[in-house]
Amino acid sequence: MAININLNDQALIDSVTAKTTAARNLLRQIATSYSPAVFANSLGAEDMVLTDLIVGDTAKIEIFSLDTGRLPLETYALIDEVKKHYGLKLRLYYPRHDLVETYTRENGINAFYESVELRKACCHVRKVEPLQRALAGRKAWITGMRAQQSATREGLPIQAFDEGNGLEKFNPLSDWSEKEVWAYIKLNKVPYNALHDNFYPSIGCAPCTRAITPGEDVRSGRWWWESPESKECGLHVKKA
């Protein structure tokens, strides 16, 4: 969620400046050494930081998003805002209609509430399979994940080989704090999802995302009926 940032906090600003330089240099390296590379933009706060860096630096990195068919209205509004603000038409990947029809026919429209297995099956149809198409033929993909976001992302490396997709995976904001993300957004007037102002720190599909209360973990609003250890959709699987 959007948090109040003291832009007179020089230590914070210095930290953001240093990490911005490091992230920008990494993105340039990726564009040069791992072409063709893509950035999977989920339209959360972190992803908008990376969008701003990539577009501002004219890095040769394609930006795409996954339209699951069940995104919040605010997320679709941000897609339009990205076009207006950056002149960027996001490439959108959609689920295969036959897979969605089979899932809902066999399990029900909201079967993901019934078990972790059915929820992950829905995520596979709406996210994982479209991602696999988006990554086909690429040498690297970039995400906005941070190590502090959840228990499943502790120790998140900046770079690692993704065996499942057969390419390098980069997390340029891995060591960023939530404050640093929002300081960058405020300093650079980056557009962001309006749900962040309504206590949504992490935003996915509408049925699987809710607001949180102060003090709750930032990922507690995602799949809130499950235990923290299962809260990934299959896009990002931490290898043992």
TrEMBL record:
| Primary site of residence | cytoplasm
What GO terms describe the biological role, i.e. biological process, of this protein?
cysteine biosynthetic process; hydrogen sulfide biosynthetic process; sulfate assimilation, phosphoadenylyl sulfate reduction by phosphoadenylyl-sulfate reductase (thioredoxin)
Q: Where does [4Fe-4S] cluster bind?
A: 122-123, 205, 208
Q: Determine if Zinc is one of this entry's keywords.
A: no
Q: In which pathway does it act?
A: Sulfur metabolism; hydrogen sulfide biosynthesis; sulfite from sulfate
Q: One cellular component GO annotation, for this chain's record?
A: cytoplasm
Q: Where found?
A: Cytoplasm
Where in this chain does the record put each Phosphoadenosine phosphosulphate reductase domain? 38-211
Per the UniProt record, which EC number(s) apply here?
1.8.4.10
The Swiss-Prot or TrEMBL record lists the needed cofactor(s) as: [4Fe-4S] cluster
Q: Which GO terms describe its molecular function?
A: 4 iron, 4 sulfur cluster binding; adenylyl-sulfate reductase (thioredoxin) activity; metal ion binding; phosphoadenylyl-sulfate reductase (thioredoxin) activity
What keywords appear on the UniProt entry?
Answer: Cytoplasm, Iron, Iron-sulfur, Metal-binding, Oxidoreductase
Query: What reaction is this protein's catalytic activity?
Result: [thioredoxin]-disulfide + sulfite + AMP + 2 H(+) = adenosine 5'-phosphosulfate + [thioredoxin]-dithiol
The record's section on InterPro entries has:
APS_reductase (IPR011798), PAPS/APS_Rdtase (IPR004511), PAPS_reduct_dom (IPR002500), Rossmann-like_a/b/a_fold (IPR014729)
UniProt-listed SUPFAM superfamilies: Adenine nucleotide alpha hydrolases-like
PANTHER family, A to Z: 5'-ADENYLYLSULFATE REDUCTASE 1, CHLOROPLASTIC, 5'-ADENYLYLSULFATE REDUCTASE 3, CHLOROPLASTIC
Q: What does this protein do?
A: Catalyzes the formation of sulfite from adenosine 5'-phosphosulfate (APS) using thioredoxin as an electron donor.
Similarity annotation: Belongs to the PAPS reductase family. CysH subfamily.
Q: What is this protein called?
A: Adenosine 5'-phosphosulfate reductase
Q: Which organism is it from?
A: Candidatus Propionivibrio aalborgensis
